[in-house]
Every structure is written in structure tokens, then in C-alpha cells.
């Protein structure tokens, strides 16, 4: 998991909770979203006490507006080493299905992919 030295291969993640509270953690490029959730759960910051969750399995990372699936590593995201990357951390039981949001929005607005014939 995370190593104790702060070298150039470390990735600094600044995690933001829904409440707006933040905390920075160091991870290896080989760490996955699941590894990160477990590490944060096991090292839950004292000032996040009100947001404490019951299990690391419900912690989800959001990066650039997308939920990260458990096996995605920081290295696969090509995050810069030695710089701070911001991600959101939320408690959520399940991940949304890929593209389900776009489909739902089209159903609500009545939008479709067909053409208008005049």
C-alpha cells in the first residue's frame, strides 16, 4: 500500500468530503481505488469524525466527474507524481451504471438521437 517516504513516485491526493472538509494523503501509483478507500478508512482523520462511515466498501472516489471503480490504479489515471491531485470522497453503496445518467436525462427531456424531418 502506501510507503512512508515522500519520493517523486508518490502521488499526493487531496480528498474532499461532501461537507467541504479536506485532507491530503500520499499514495503509490500502484494503489487502486479500493486500496485508497481502505487506507483512508483505517486512518480516518480526527476532524472528519462526523462523517465517519461504517465500512471502507462504501467509500467512493470521484475524479474529473467520474466514479473510480475499485481496481483502477492511480498510475492508470496518469496522475502527476510529486504534485497534488484533487478527488472527491463520498459514501455510496453502489456505483451508477456507465452512461445511465445520459440515458436518464434523455428520457426526462424527451430528447432522442433521431432526426427531425421537415
Automatic annotation (TrEMBL):
<dbReference type="GO" id="GO:0005886">
    <property type="term" value="C:plasma membrane"/>
</dbReference>
<feature type="domain" description="Ubiquitin-like">
    <location>
        <begin position="9"/>
        <end position="89"/>
    </location>
</feature>
<dbReference type="InterPro" id="IPR029071">
    <property type="entry name" value="Ubiquitin-like_domsf"/>
</dbReference>
<dbReference type="Pfam" id="PF13881">
    <property type="entry name" value="Rad60-SLD_2"/>
</dbReference>
<keyword id="KW-0564">Palmitate</keyword>
<dbReference type="InterPro" id="IPR000626">
    <property type="entry name" value="Ubiquitin-like_dom"/>
</dbReference>
<keyword id="KW-0449">Lipoprotein</keyword>
<keyword id="KW-0488">Methylation</keyword>
<keyword id="KW-1003">Cell membrane</keyword>
<dbReference type="InterPro" id="IPR039540">
    <property type="entry name" value="UBL3-like_ubiquitin_dom"/>
</dbReference>
<dbReference type="InterPro" id="IPR017000">
    <property type="entry name" value="MUB"/>
</dbReference>
<dbReference type="InterPro" id="IPR040015">
    <property type="entry name" value="UBL3-like"/>
</dbReference>
<keyword id="KW-0472">Membrane</keyword>
<dbReference type="InterPro" id="IPR047977">
    <property type="entry name" value="UBL3_Ubl_met"/>
</dbReference>
<protein>
    <recommendedName>
        <fullName>Ubiquitin-like protein</fullName>
    </recommendedName>
</protein>
<keyword id="KW-0636">Prenylation</keyword>
Amino acid at each position: 500500500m502506501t510507503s512512508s517516504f515522500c519520493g517523486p513516485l508518490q502521488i499526493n491526493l487531496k480528498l474532499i468530503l461532501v461537507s467541504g472538509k479536506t485532507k491530503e494523503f500520499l499514495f503509490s501509483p500502484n494503489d487502486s481505488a479500493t486500496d485508497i478507500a481502505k487506507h483512508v478508512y483505517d486512518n480516518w482523520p480526527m476532524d472528519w469524525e462526523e462523517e465517519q462511515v461504517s465500512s471502507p466498501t462504501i467509500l467512493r472516489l470521484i475524479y474529473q466527474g467520474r466514479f473510480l471503480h475499485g481496481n483502477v490504479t492511480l498510475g492508470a489515471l496518469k496522475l502527476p507524481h510529486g504534485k497534488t491531485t484533487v478527488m472527491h470522497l463520498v459514501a455510496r453503496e453502489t456505483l451508477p451504471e456507465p452512461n445511465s445518467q445520459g440515458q436518464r436525462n434523455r428520457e426526462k427531456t424527451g430528447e432522442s438521437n433521431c432526426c427531425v424531418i421537415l
